[in-house]
Amino acid sequence: MLEIDGLRKRYGDVVALDGVSLTVTPGQMFGFVGANGAGKTTTMRIVMGVLSSDGGEVRWKGAKVGHDTRRRFGYMPEERGLYAKMRVAEQIEYFGKLGGMSPEAARRSAGDLIERLNLTERRGDDVDSLSLGNQQRVQLAVALIHDPELLVLDEPFSGLDPIAVDALAGVLAERKAAGVPVVFSSHQLDLVERLCDSVGIIKAGRLIAGGTVAELRARESRKLLRVVVTGAAPGWTDRLPGEIVSKTDRPRHGAPDAYGDDRYDEVVLMPTDDQEALRVAVQAGRVQHFAWQQPSLAEIFREVVA
């Protein structure tokens, strides 16, 4: 288990971290989200020993993390940390040997990762000849080569196409299933929502919200109702009780629907009376959808950091 306890870091008058604390348990995928400069990368660099903290502690399995412990971690920095003129397979094997593997074990593990990450046709290419997406795959292989006990990944999905995202997500899911804690930061909140068991939202060096996506949704102050009605006369939404957050009010594209309705209205409402909202919708036309709307992680993030 990774424990980050009260981390503090200053750069002159700038407070980069202000008492950040979090825990990542075995087999948990933790998504670290925040705006640029919020403190995500600083936290990860302190975990990996790239930076020193001004206060607080990082513990692994209950003991303070030191150099020998960090050798058992896998780290993927946001900036490329690769040797541009080395060939792909040679480079991955090299980092495996730096992690303490025998040449034979490093070669075998590199071959498995190259195949798993769809790099087989690029194994003999220099890294600087690869696309940014393929360089990202090599960077991940370097982080995974020595079978780490913990994975710390800074923006691992940046620049990847959907196929590469799926491949990387699959590899991380395998490590998670094997009991490896995975910490990754990302601005792609849809991916964080889809992949992570737990999420931490950081702002100005402070962790301001955390928990599962379901727990974060439960803290959402607004309860939003999504209503879809076809065949209604224009202006019916004016009778809805409460605050209209968004509204789509337009003719249907193409032919009328099966009921001959040629108008489609979608409203997201913060109602004062949901039963009255239903009555108004039924009177207006055919109700195609009427349900409470689950806020996305992006919506939660915007509200929390506002």
TrEMBL record:
Q: Which InterPro entries match?
A: AAA+_ATPase, ABC_transporter-like_ATP-bd, ABC_transporter-like_CS, ABC_transporter_ATP-binding, DrrA1/2-like_C, P-loop_NTPase
Looking up Gene3D superfamilies in the UniProt record yields: P-loop containing nucleotide triphosphate hydrolases (3.40.50.300)
Where does the UniProt entry say this protein principally localizes? membrane
Which molecular function term from Gene Ontology is one that the record holds? ATP binding
**What GO terms describe the biological role, i.e. biological process, of this protein?**
response to antibiotic
Q: Write down any Gene Ontology CC term.
A: plasma membrane
Q: Where is this region: Disordered?
A: 240-259
Q: What SUPFAM superfamilies does the database record attribute to this sequence?
A: P-loop containing nucleoside triphosphate hydrolases (SSF52540)
Keywords for the protein's UniProt record, in alphabetical order:
Antibiotic resistance, ATP-binding, Nucleotide-binding, Transport
Ranges of biased composition (kind: Basic and acidic residues) = 246-259
Give the domain of life: Bacteria
Q: Where, per UniProt, does this protein localize?
A: Cell membrane
Q: Where is the ABC transporter domain?
A: 2-229
Q: How does it sit in the membrane?
A: Peripheral membrane protein
Please report which protein family the annotation says this sequence is part of.
Answer: Belongs to the ABC transporter superfamily.
Protein name as it appears in the record: ABC-2 type transport system ATP-binding protein
Biological classification of the source:
Bacteria, Bacillati, Actinomycetota, Actinomycetes, Streptosporangiales
